[in-house]
Recover the amino acids of this structure.
């Protein structure tokens, strides 16, 4: 059976928009996906559970309602934690190979259902369908990776301290993990956490973002089809209003052993305060303000390609998006000129289901207002609008390029989360590093150079958790993802990601005959 979500808006008008864009947004869209994947209830203890209230999930491109989803509260949150805790007692005893096989099956089901999952992502998140397919593959890659890592959790035998004893180090799962995820990668941010947790022997309670719960619920259906036992994977959708109370339960309940959160630094600090009461293990992937540095020695054409990929993926709404573009004075003008031409040629604003669209809507009008505010502030302080600069109707924003930007402007001081490129001119390597490292956060950073000595110096001195050298896209399941300073705690993905869900137990075995 197929379910249909209708994505229709009768009248949407855009200032400074092409007729094709207006026609694309006015057009009605029917989204046909498998009925089994169109879930609107919570998933608790292997059952689909209704809540006393519901909340609407909207298409960010049109503002129209996609579905009404269960609005879970503290009661449902406690039920989910209890279900996960009960399931943990048997899941932690399962063989690593058994967990590996189930995760592999989940991965295969995700790939088999990639068409429907991609459509759900575009519908509720707004990103172009091509990017949504990319996210599904990225999401699945973590299930594949951690299905393999499940069998590689090794302990240690420590050299003797006395002849009649042996020292062994065991690795054991931390327990129930509360997983709180953002809207910009509604599938991948879940599997990157849940894949590691389940591989380690933990059970999880997932609270997806209120804007994008449909992808999380579809993953729950596929987890069930894969044979993952009841209570091992639970999903609690809830509205913006209910989120603080539900989040508090997930972070303070004594049955929860671990919290993993991706989102803003401000919210992360709130969750850390909640976690402190029971001293829980935490992983935090928080905000960024990524520098993108182009030195005089760089290949400018390659730097432009990197800038386009790093900045405009998901309309600039990723935590590792380049936010501050620092270009050395010798190549500044040519870089700005070539980037403006690339933007003109390659970027097309529209609904995510339109084949030509590369820039979908921002997640909501508040996001557009933030970008608009940063542009107005920059212009008022002397910045020049090279391209774009205008807010469109609804949740759409023109991709914008600014020059003559300085460090006292909002667009360089706070994360934008939108399609804005502010370019600062600098003189020396030392100056660029000082500007780049002045931020209180340090998630990702990028730079372009063909000087080997400079590459080593800058890579080592940038105060970030991840560095792209002559590369604008750096995420991969095999690589550790995380930041320094106020960008978070811990790492996700890679061989290090599973360690976030494991405790090391020291066992001293004494009384042995020599």
């Amino acid at each position: 059976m197929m379910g249909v979500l209708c994505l229709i808006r009768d009248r949407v008008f855009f200032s400074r928009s092409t007729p094709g864009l207006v026609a694309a947004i006015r057009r009605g869209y029917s989204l046909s996906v498998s009925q089994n994947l169109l879930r609107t209830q919570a998933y608790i203890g292997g059952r689909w559970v209704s809540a006393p209230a519901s909340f609407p999930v909207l298409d960010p491109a049109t503002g129209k309602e996609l579905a009404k989803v269960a609005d879970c509260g503290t009661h449902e949150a406690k039920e989910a934690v209890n279900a996960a805790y009960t399931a943990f007692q048997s899941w932690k005893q399962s063989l690593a190979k058994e967990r590996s096989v189930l995760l592999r099956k989940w991965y295969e089901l995700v790939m088999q259902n990639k068409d429907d999952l991609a459509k759900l992502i575009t519908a509720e998140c707004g990103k172009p369908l091509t990017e949504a397919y990319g996210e599904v593959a990225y999401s699945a890659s973590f299930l594949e990776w951690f299905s393999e890592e499940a069998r590689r959790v090794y302990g240690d035998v420590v050299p003797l301290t006395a002849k009649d004893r042996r020292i062994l180090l065991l690795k054991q799962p931390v327990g129930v993990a509360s997983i709180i995820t953002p809207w910009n990668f509604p599938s991948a941010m879940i599997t990157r956490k849940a894949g590691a947790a389940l591989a380690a022997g933990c059970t999880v309670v997932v609270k997806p973002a209120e804007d994008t719960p449909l992808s999380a619920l579809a993953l729950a259906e596929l987890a069930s089809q894969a044979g993952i036992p009841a209570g091992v994977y639970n999903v609690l959708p809830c509205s913006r209003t209910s989120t603080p109370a539900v989040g508090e339960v997930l972070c303070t309940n004594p049955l929860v052993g671990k919290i993993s959160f991706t989102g803003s630094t401000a919210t992360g600090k709130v969750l850390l305060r909640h976690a402190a009461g029971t001293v829980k293990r935490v992983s935090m992937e928080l905000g960024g303000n990524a520098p993108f540095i182009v030195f005089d020695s760089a290949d400018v054409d390659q730097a432009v390609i990197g800038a386009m990929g790093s900045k405009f993926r998901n309309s600039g709404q990723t935590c590792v998006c380049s936010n501050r573009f620092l270009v050395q004075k010798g190549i500044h003008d040519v870089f700005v000129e070539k980037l403006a031409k690339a933007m003109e040629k390659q970027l097309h604003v529209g609904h995510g289901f339109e084949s030509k669209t590369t820039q979908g809507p921002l997640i909501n009008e508040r996001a557009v207002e933030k970008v608009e505010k940063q542009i107005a502030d920059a212009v008022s302080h002397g910045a020049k609008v090279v391209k774009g600069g205008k807010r469109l109707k609804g949740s759409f924003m023109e991709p914008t390029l600014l020059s003559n930007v300085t460090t006292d402007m909002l667009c360089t001081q706070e994360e934008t989360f939108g399609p804005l490129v502010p370019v600062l001119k600098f003189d020396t390597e030392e100056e660029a590093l000082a500007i780049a490292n002045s931020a209180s956060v340090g998630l990702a950073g990028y730079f372009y150079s063909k000087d080997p000595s400079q590459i080593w110096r800058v890579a080592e001195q940038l105060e970030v958790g991840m560095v792209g050298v002559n590369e604008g896209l750096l995420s991969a399941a095999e690589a550790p993802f995380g930041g320094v300073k106020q960008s978070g705690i811990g790492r996700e993905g890679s061989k290090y990601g599973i360690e976030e869900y494991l405790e090391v137990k020291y066992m001293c075995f004494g009384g042995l005959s020599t």
